[in-house]
Amino acid sequence: MTTDPTRLTAAELAARIADGELTAVEVTEAHLARIGAVDEKVHAFLHVDREGALAQARAVDAKRERGEPLGPLAGVPLALKDIFTTQGVPTTVGSKILEGWIPPYDATVTRRLKDADVVILGKTNMDEFAMGSSTENSAFGPTGNPWDLTRVPGGSGGGSAASLAAYEAPLAIGTDTGGSIRQPAAVTGTVGVKPTYGGVSRYGMVAFSSSLDQGGPCARTVLDAALLHSVIAGHDALDSTSIDQPVPDVVEAARNGSVEGLRVGVVKEFRGEGYQAGVVQRFDEAVGLLRELGAEVVEISCPSFTKGLAAYYLIAPSECSSNLARFDAMRYGLRVGDDGAHSAEEVTALTREAGFGDEVKRRVMLGTYALSSGYYDAYYGSAQKVRTLITRDFEKAFEQVDVVVSPTTPTTAFPIGERVDDPMAMYLADVCTLPSNLAGNAAMSLPCGLAPEDGLPVGLQIIAPALADDRLYRVGAAVEAAYQARWGHPLLEEAPSL
Amino acid sequence: MPGISREEVAHLARLARLELKDEELDHFAGQLDDIIGAVATVSDVADEDVPPTSHPLPLTNVMRPDEVRPSLTSAQALDQAPAQEQQRFKVPQILGEE
């Protein structure tokens, strides 16, 4: 076999490792070499765990030699967002406040990956505490979009998405609070899934907004995302909001893509001002493709979605202002000003000032404001009502249709630096994705072409009702296959070589 | 809706335990004012008779059996502490001078 292992899908790698055509060590070394060759330019990784990855790969090869059963993704390398704790391996959440912190325990997602014989290559860059849509809010510098290194890879999970697009890893894990898996997938030409809220354990996933945060799979193909989804999903007694029900058979769905007879809803509120012409064009073509493949397309109206952004930017900051109170400089992480002259409270304030970046400070203060007496009812209380109205809009939509589709994000990847000091412009990147976080349903982004005006990837978002994650994969696989037949190759092959 | 003044930002920063620098107060006042202006549209529904949603799942008091289980040792729990003494987290002075 002369094929470069970094160009294979996770499904292909797993099959070749299981057959003995490739060893897990060869595959891991090829990806570590690729990281060594390109990551100085891309900066997808905050930490590469060379020794840990090779040890895990050797263990997989030894298991195979002994004839022991292997997991479905045994030996396949993965890039883990630096928001999941990893025992003995640094976890920073992209923040100075946790720089150098070595967690004493594994997140449930980390544990399940290890138990499935997946090889964790390292930890990926992200907006600090997952707050952002460009990865520019990382305390450790931005990540470049492999399609154009002067542009953002989306965020907050820009490192995970960029690692896939740069062929540094075939699989990655992200977290999605308002779009942080799907929007990076859209702007890097990769696949990302936000599972139903409660589908993947939050234990050991550093909390930003607990009622919205959801971990999920990132990959270059729909089937690879499904294989990863099935490894990380499922009930966890360590997360009280984990759903205690069987995980839908997402792998079967991804292997049997079809939209025949499916009713697809197009949200009429998701277009107009702020939507790039090329994004709208590729989205309209995707809707046409769904029709050609046998789906029935219906226009639907979800009027409350127009208030989704406002509700989200009250609820998420409110929850974050509470969650981030644990960073008090007392038990772990950075401590500044402990010189005998400052009280504990002063040390906390000095540490948070030095350890948090601007976006985190903005959101902590915004949340403090929205929850303060006198403003609580008008802001936080009203945002919670909007959340109900958005959930009802989805319920009404899913009475008429099986899935809802939209552009994933209104524009293609924007230049690094363009929106960094204009928070409202940055927040607009999430306008199509955050309703699913507020309602807790499942959604996927997959590539639907390049925008004609800039040649950058456009994402198609598919939304399914809560607990119907398999529907995303059935539709996504059909759309992906139709596009590949049309293009003759995966979209990523059009990306410039790094 | 009221605008956010420099003084209000200073007050929020105190509540949020952020020792902001002077130049940050001006910077954040303008930005927070913009954001709050934009998100204030939610209050259009303030008087509507709609129940609030705080969470996507209707869960209450998920409990596990109250059993003794292994946990981190004190050495593991203290391993990343900024300061420790006698198997405890050592913190700066909490109470004022005598």
Provide a compact summary of the structure.
The complex is a heterodimer of chains A (498) and B (98). Chain A is an alpha/beta fold and 498 residues long.
The proportion of residues forming helix of chain B, as a percent range, comes to 25-40%
Query: Span between N and C termini of chain A?
Result: 24 Å
Largest interface comes to: A-B, 71 and 56 residues
CATH architecture assignment name of the domain at 6-44 in chain B: Orthogonal Bundle
Low-confidence stretches of chain A: none
Biggest sheet overview of chain A: 11 strands, mixed
What does the average pLDDT of chain A come to? 97
CATH architecture of the domain at 5-256 and 442-494 in chain A: Alpha-Beta Complex
The named CATH superfamily of the domain at 5-256 and 442-494 in chain A: Amidase signature (AS) domain
Mean pLDDT of chain B equals: 91
Number of helices of chain B: 3
Q: Tell me the structural class of chain A.
A: alpha/beta
How large a portion of the residues of chain B is in β-strands, by DSSP E? Answer: under 5%
Shape of chain A: globular
Give the % helix of chain A: 25-40%
Structure description:
Chain A: Heterotrimer of A, B and C subunits. Chain A: One of its GO terms (biological process) is translation. Chain A: Its EC number is 6.3.5.7. Chain A: One of its GO terms (molecular function) is ATP binding. Chain A: Pfam families: Amidase. The complex is a heterodimer of chains A (498) and B (98). Chain A has 498 residues and is an alpha/beta fold. The longest helix of chain A has 24 residues, at 377-400. In chain A, strands 1-3-2-4-6-5-10-11-9-7-8 form an eleven-stranded mixed β-sheet, sandwiched between helices. In chain A, a hairpin with a 6-residue loop joins strand 10 (442-450) and strand 11 (457-464). Chain A has a domain at 5-256 and 442-494: Amidase signature (AS) enzymes, CATH 3.90.1300.10. Chain A is globular. Chain A contains 16 helices and eleven strands. Chain A starts with 9 loop residues before the first helix and ends in an 11-residue tail after the last helix. Chain B has a domain at 6-44: Histone, subunit A (Orthogonal Bundle), CATH 1.10.20. The longest helix of chain B is centred in the first third of the chain and has 18 residues, at 22-39. Chain B has a two-stranded antiparallel ribbon with strand order 1-2. In chain B, 34% of the residues lie in helices and 4% in strands. With 98 residues, chain B is mainly alpha-helical. Chains A and B meet through helix 10, helix 11, helix 12, helix 13 and helix 14 of A and helix 1 and helix 2 of B.
